[in-house]
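The records we work with from here on pair a chain with its fold. These numbers are not coordinates but entries in a learned vocabulary of local backbone shapes. To see the layout at work, look at the sequence and tokens printed below:
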Amino acid sequence: MNKTKSFFFDLLQDESGQDLIEYALVAGLIGLGAVVAMTGLSGKIQSSFNSVGSSLTNAV
């Protein structure tokens, strides 16, 4: 029983995979921010292309 208790205590103190988890969280937050930014900009980009397209159509 003491060996099992020691194993779980050592497991709780182990921080070897902590860096990987932190990098994954940062990458996930950057990806989420990019998706939100692109969603917000998509309407503005679409209206700009429509404006340019209608200007070119009216010029001919």
